[in-house]
Specification:
Elements lengths: L1 H16 L3 H4 L6 E11 L10 E12 L5 E2 L4 E7 L3 E4 L1 E4 L3 E2 L4 E11 H4 L6 E7 L2 E5 L18 H14 L2 H6 L4 H6 L2 H8 L16 H27 L5 E3 L6 E3 L9 H8 L10 E2 L5 E2 L8 H13 L4 E11 L2 E12 L2 E7 L9 H6 L4 E3 L7 H12 L2 H14 L8 H19 L3
Antiparallel strand pairs: 1-2, 2-8, 3-7, 4-5, 4-9, 6-8, 9-10, 11-12, 13-15, 14-15, 15-16, 16-17, 16-18
Helix pairs in contact: 13-14
């Protein structure tokens, strides 16, 4: 008897140590939904359309019933604009059925007209229907800003022209709109990137998360926007510095003052570059629209061509080309360098400045890494100057270079038969390289 009483007391103590589940847990009824994040996307599953944006709404479904439930048809979502226009969301979940007390994570994706994406969030609502119950959820993302949204262009030259024209107007929003930001963030292949780098450097400004959901994709997009804005700042700094009072410290990436009593920046240029708010072209800025593809100068070997293709795969790009565009400021000759990327059938400025790295000393490159370079700094770049002269003299070469690059990026250079690929690449490059004097 004493033994039985002891067992009952022990059981009572054990039960007392456990939480009263029915009193502490929050129980729902049937299927419930929790919205966990939202983000604007410029493409969805590789599809891009002019005048269209996608809204991805991350959500978690929970089944509080004692039976397994079908998901299809039991949870739907609509994007409602101005209480009049409704757009059905595509349900993207990792399962067709959900067991008792299980959660299933997924998303609803809405294909929306651009004008709706830019509308006041107060005029929009997300309306979920779950188990016959309607639930309205406010937007937790702002309207897509017209000034900074991606546009995409028919040709890479058009992307570079749009960027440099905006640069001449001092239009930051239009410069960023010419770049791949949201699309880049959504297509970035983090696993392949870090495997290729062989390291994870937390100090780099271009540290991106795997774009597994709305939050990480939005975070990557903002990180990229900050990175590109930093390059734009470097472009204007390169223009505004006073060359008579400074000199580049080799290998250091900064200007040293040759005369401490002279201002480091040219005040007249600062006034012309920054004190404008009428959208007009900056005083003294000249750009005639000429844009030259300099990619052939990068393709010195099969290994280099393959490396560029690998970079495209990592960064979600289908093709990449490098360009130089001459412009002037107060009569002084400058060059703007940029890489352009094709994503789907649209072209963007991928990154300003990268090509110039191979043409400048280390100190100059660090300062001019935004891609805006005085022509005088390129005096010793004889190959580049001769190449640009050939393109100026023979307009037909641009078409041949375009065809050559299209054929190169159609090859799968990751194929195991490297010898055969090197032969194919050589056959594509040789005719154009002979005409350009690069062989």
């Amino acid at each position: 008897m004493k033994k039985m009483i002891a067992m009952i007391l022990a059981a009572a103590l054990l039960l007392g140590a456990l939480p009263a589940l029915a009193e502490t847990a929050e129980w729902g009824e049937g299927l419930t939904i929790e919205v966990t994040g939202m983000a604007w996307l410029s493409s969805w599953e590789g599809a891009r359309e002019d005048g269209v944006r996608w809204l991805r709404v991350d959500a978690t479904l929970t089944n509080w019933d004692s039976d397994t439930r079908d998901i299809e048809g039991q949870a739907t979502a609509r994007f409602v604009y101005a209480d009049r226009y409704a757009y059905e969301g595509e349900a993207v979940f990792g399962a067709d059925r959900i067991g008792p007390l299980f959660d299933v994570k997924g998303a609803f994706v809405f294909r929306l007209p651009l004008r709706v994406a830019q509308a006041d969030p107060a005029d929009c609502a997300l309306r979920f229907t779950v188990d016959g119950r309607e639930i309205d959820v406010p937007l937790s993302v702002g309207a897509l800003p017209a000034a900074t949204r991606e546009t995409g262009f028919d040709t890479p030259e058009d992307a570079v022209r749009a960027y440099l024209s905006a640069f001449g107007r001092g239009d930051l929003g239009a410069m960023l709109a010419a770049c791949a930001i949201e699309t880049y963030a959504a297509r970035f292949d983090a696993a392949r990137f870090y495997a290729r780098m062989g390291s994870l450097n937390v100090n780099t400004t271009q540290l991106y998360l795997p774009p597994t959901g709305a939050f990480s994709t939005a975070l990557n997009a903002e990180n990229r926007r900050v990175y590109l804005t930093g390059l734009i700042r470097m472009q204007y700094m390169a223009l505004a510095v006073n060359p008579e009072a400074t000199e580049i410290k080799e290998g250091s990436g900064f200007y040293g003052l040759t005369d401490p009593e002279t201002k480091a920046f040219d005040q007249a240029r600062l006034d012309a570059l920054f004190i404008r708010d009428d959208g007009a072209v900056q005083d003294g800025f000249g750009f005639d629209g000429a844009v030259y593809c300099v990619s052939p100068l990068l393709f010195s070997s099969f290994r280099r061509v393959r490396s560029i293709q690998q970079s495209c795969a990592v960064n979600g790009m289908d093709e990449m080309r490098s360009f130089a565009a001459p412009f002037s400021l107060d009569g002084e000759a400058w060059l703007f360098f940029a890489d352009a990327a094709r994503i789907g059938d649209r072209w963007y400025v991928y990154e300003p400045g990268s090509y110039a790295a191979g043409q400048l000393s280390s100190g100059a490159w660090l300062f001019y890494r935004g891609g805006v370079v005085p022509a005088q700094a390129l005096d010793e770049a004889e190959e580049l100057k001769a190449y640009l002269r050939r393109l100026e003299e023979d307009a037909a070469l641009a078409g041949e270079i375009d065809d050559m690059l299209t054929r190169l990026f159609a090859l799968d250079l990751m194929d195991e038969d490297q010898a055969a690929l090197e032969e194919q690449v050589g056959a594509i490059l040789t005719p154009v390289f002979n005409k350009l004097g690069l062989m």
